[in-house]
Every structure is written in structure tokens, then in C-alpha cells.
Amino acid sequence: MSASIDILINSTKDNELKIIAEKVKQQQRITDAEGIILFERADLPFVGALANFIRERLHGDKTYFNRNFHIEPTNVCVFSCKFCSYSKLYSHKEEGWELSIDQMLDIVKSYDGKPITEVHIVGGVHPKMNLDYFVELITKIKAHRPELHIKAFTAVELDYMIRKAKMTIEEGMEFLHKAGLDSLPGGGAEIFHPEIREKICADKVDADGWLKIHEVAHKLDMHSNATMLYGHIEKYEHRIDHMRRLRELQDKTHGFNTFIPLKFRNHDNDMSNVPESTITEDMRLYAIARIYLDNFPHLKAYWPMLGRDNAQLSLAFGVNDIDGTIDDSTKIYSMAGSEEQKPAMTTEQLVTLIKQVKRHPVERDTLYNVVKDFNNVDFAEVDATLN
């Protein structure tokens, strides 16, 4: 691998790009200014080569996925984010859906006997679905299936339910953790910089609040993920500012599992006039994120958002995780006009997708412990219940 980096360094005429490449080779951290230089001046093959060098140094050809399903309790929400195609305001709640605890438990029970390792629970912020409501939900899920990992509630949901319960963040997070909450997803981060956040999601938890919730979770030995919504009205410096705040918290807590860039989709929302980013810009973003976030162990591409072909492509630009089987249970991106309108893949389909681009498929649990190595699995010999 170092030989390919040496070739890249020697062939680069831009001295500042040469310095960045040398830093990557030596496993040294790049600065914010150098991150912006990559966005402004580096071409796709350059950042792709650097990102793939880091990816293969960390993980070789291994590409992770998990077997999970999503529960979305409601799309009714008290907030009005301009980029959102998913939620319905509480004043129009009849246009949305609200699941009862029993209905959500029925979803969990529908996976009884299947080798699912994670349930992912996120949704709108509904004023009647409070802290006690969700504590009851996760308590009942754990009682029914104790080994199922519960990854639930964005920092936006948590901030609202904990404040409404008149608890501190520390008290609320400990209450949920003791009830069975195992880890946090990365949603609600959007763009941290106030210049952009004020324009696209002014009424929900700010950057400091989001980061504090994740820091408290990490102190409770709960891991979490982090996201960034990109490709709308933000500039390169806003992307770097966002990733810098995440990198600083990761230095402090080491609690983030993975970074997940989320592509803005402009279907049926208040930002429909904003053009979406190109696939070239998507791959540049993944690559530069891999280079900049040197203390994040994993970089994930959410395949229902990108589509299967582009998810495969991302594996050459620093990505080493393409999420899970999903099982047609999330509407957040399909409602926004994503490539996958019915996002479901069997284990065999995921493994095949990874192998088609000469990568090594590994099923993981939420915390990246290996569940099964699928590199040499012949599905013709595997029992049909695997899927």
C-alpha cells in the first residue's frame, strides 16, 4: 500500500497536496485548513487513493454489515426542519402515523427465531410519546428478547423527552440506559455550524446540546454513531467545522463507532429548490471524511440512501460498512426520493453486493464484534432460514 502512496506523492505537483498525502502515509492528523484544501483543490482520484489507503490500513478488504430492522414510532413531529420529507407537524397529525407500544412489540415479535442482532428505533418528536412511554417500550423489548441490541433515539428526540420530564441529561440518559437502551444512532446532527443550522433546523437541539448527549452516553459506556447532512446550502468550511467538533469529542471519549454522511434529498420538502449533490461530490465527501476523521474507526455508507451501485462504489473511497439488511422497515429516505424506495436486502444479497467489488463481507453486531465471516460462504449450502 505504501508504494501506491509514494507514487501519488511523487506525481502530485501541488506542494500542499503533497504534504497532506505525506501526512496520511505517516498516520499524522490533517488540519482544518488542509481539509478545506482537499475539498477545493484535490481531484477525486487523489482523495480516493488516500482514503482507500487508510481504509485498507485499518480494515484490509473487510466490509461490515449487520442484520437489523427499524421501528419508526411516528412521523408526527413538533419540529419543522426544512430539509425533512418525512415528518408531519403535530397540528396535522392525522396525516401521519402513530404506533402504539403493542404495535411496536408486534414488529419485534415478527422477528422471533430470526438471527437479527439489532433494532433501530427513531422517529418524529411526538409530544405524547414521552420519556416514560419509551422506557416502557424498551423495557418490554428487553423482557421479550434480552439479547437484542436496542439502538434508539436521536439526540433531538432525547433532548425533547428528557427536558419534558424535567430531568438533567445525565439523569435522563441513565434512566434510559438502565431500562435497556444500549446505544445511540447518529441522527439529528445535520450541520452543527449555527449559520446553517439556523436556516435549516432552527428549532431543535443545537450543536452543543447534541454533542453533550453523546458525551453523556459515552460516559455511561454506551457507544454511538455520528452523522452529517451534506449537499444542500452548506459550504466546505461548514463540513470541516462539523467534523472537527466530532473529532474533538472522539479524542475525549472514544465513544463513536462510525461516521455516516447523509446525502440531502430534495423531494417533497421546503428545500426542493436546492439541487442535490452529484455522485462525484458524494464520493469526495466520503473520502475526505475518512482522511479527516482519523480517530473514527469506521465510515459507513447508508445503502438505501445512495442506492446499491453507489454503495458499492463508496467501498473504494474509504467506506468499510454499508449498514444492514434494513428489511423494508424505514421510510425516512424513501419518502425523500432516495434510490431505494423499498429498502430491503437479504443477507445473501448484501454479501453478493460486497463480493462483486472484491471486498470481504463480515457480519457484525452493533459494536463491530464479528458475528460471522461470509468470505467463503456458499449460499447454495446454507439453510434458507439464514435470510
Explain how this protein is built.
- The chain is an alpha/beta fold and 387 residues long.
- The chain is built from 15 helices and twelve strands.
- A four-stranded mixed β-sheet has the order 10-1-11-12, covered by helices on one side. A three-stranded parallel β-sheet has the order 2-5-6, covered by helices on one side. Strands 7-8-9 form a three-stranded parallel β-sheet.
- Strand 11 and strand 12 form a beta hairpin.
- Helix 1 packs antiparallel against helix 2, helix 5 packs parallel to helix 6 and helix 10 packs parallel to helix 11.
- The longest helix is centred in the middle third of the chain and has 18 residues.
Short structural description:
By secondary structure, the chain is α/β, with parallel strands linked by helices. The protein contains 15 helices and twelve strands. The radius of gyration is 20 Å and the shape is globular.
The global form is globular
Largest sheet: 4 strands, mixed
Please give the count of helices: 15
Radius of gyration: 20 Å
Classify the secondary structure makeup into a structural class: alpha/beta
Helix content: 40-55%
Unreliable residue stretches: 328-341, 382-387
Give the amount of beta strand, in percent: 5-15%
Average of pLDDT: 90
Strand order of the largest sheet: 10-1-11-12
Structural descriptors:
disordered C terminus, alpha/beta, 387 residues
Describe the secondary structure blueprint for this structure:
Layout (H helix, E strand, L loop, with lengths): L1 H10 L3 H11 L6 H10 L2 H16 L2 E5 L1 E4 L4 E2 L10 E2 L11 H9 L8 E4 L9 H14 L4 E4 L2 H10 L4 H11 L14 H7 L6 H13 L4 E7 L5 H18 L2 E8 L15 H14 L5 E2 L3 H4 L1 H7 L6 E4 L22 H10 L3 E5 L5 E4 L14
Parallel strand pairs: 1-10, 1-11, 2-5, 3-4, 5-6, 7-8, 8-9
Antiparallel strand pairs: 11-12
Helix pairs in contact: 1-2, 1-4, 3-11, 3-12, 4-12, 5-6, 6-8, 7-8, 7-10, 8-10, 10-11
